[in-house]
Amino acid sequence: xxxxxxxxxxxTWSIVLDLGRRRDPKTGLLKRVxxxxxxxxxxxxxxxxxxRLLHQYQAxxxxx
Length: 64
Prior knowledge:
Layout: E1 2-9, E2 12-23, E3 30-40, H1 43-63
């Protein structure tokens, strides 16, 4: 699982988690699955939140 930051406005960041690919039942094609979060503050704070979110999603994925 991966993630990255997108600069939005001054002091505002978007966190994008790439959750992998899933097959679309209608077309049968692979679709990219992403989860977006908003974060205000510095880039360092956004990076820390990204790290926490990646850890949470990986922990849930191990349980499944």
